[in-house]
Automatic annotation (TrEMBL):
Belongs to the shaker potassium channel beta subunit family. Residues 15-314 form the NADP-dependent oxidoreductase domain. This is Aldo/keto reductase. It comes from Planomonospora sphaerica. One of its GO terms (molecular function) is oxidoreductase activity. It holds the Pfam family Aldo_ket_red.
Amino acid sequence: MEFRHLGRSGLMVSEISYGNWITHGSQVEEDAAKECVKAALDEGITTFDTADVYAGTKAEEVLGRALKGVRRESLEIFTKVYWPTGPGPNDRGLSRKHITESIHGSLRRLQTDYVDLYQAHRFDHETPLEETLKTFDDLVRQGKVLYVGVSEWNAEQIAAALKIADEMGFDRLVSNQPQYSMLWRVIEAEVVPLCQKEGLGQVVWSPIAQGVLTGKYLPGQPPPAGSRATDPTGGNFISRMLADDVLTRVQELKPIAADLGLTMAQLAVAWVLQNPNVSSAIVGATKPEQVRDNVKAAGVKLDAEVLKKIDDVLDPIVERDPAKTVSPPKRP
């Protein structure tokens, strides 16, 4: 495993991080989840990403139990706040009330005194940005959070947060957690240039495009049983990538991967790691073998010729529109 700084901060994170969206607490049984976490640790992964909303808070509980007994100082634990975790009007968003209550719940479920990175899971159009950033800053000063970041914020929103933090003397954001893959490059035009300039690193999710870039989904055929596409939550995210024109072109990546001695998944993860603004690529797994396969992408260097071949294959189907990075609007 190789390590990178999280943005311009001093925090080092593993190039490959382990995430438990969808899987822990819902798609796989707890014993299997623990085996995946063990495999991640065995392979040198030290960075673990979750969120309060995953599996209705159960994912944090499973991860907390899976990491119990591991030396806390050897881990980087990330979690997030924003989405609803209860029925009340204050059980969501980035208000001082919800952030404060959410971090206490996350710490309890994760069985830890602090998280290394606390992220705003989406932009909250209903809460003043100053309120959110002041609350984050307070949590840092209290030692409950070491670093703060955001997830799926656009460049304008990130810039506004950085301006307020600088003016008010708050802790600055060090990271953004966007979707990013060979097929989904919406951060490249605006978010990445801003983050490179301002010192934020990308902790990217879905580098394998919800499994599409493994090549297991074939044009003209139904998704394999038990795959992400058949999961009620994952299926919503993957459906747009299951068009036959996308799947046909993905199949054309197989000889490129084979020539490099890589699996399709390894090629996909290695590709996002070629971007110098990417600090870590999050992988999920339902089986330990998937973790062991994915980590082999760490340290892989793809030369310009390979990157061009990939672009030549995928360019007509790549999504690049920066406007695709969106957060929910105000409630009516």
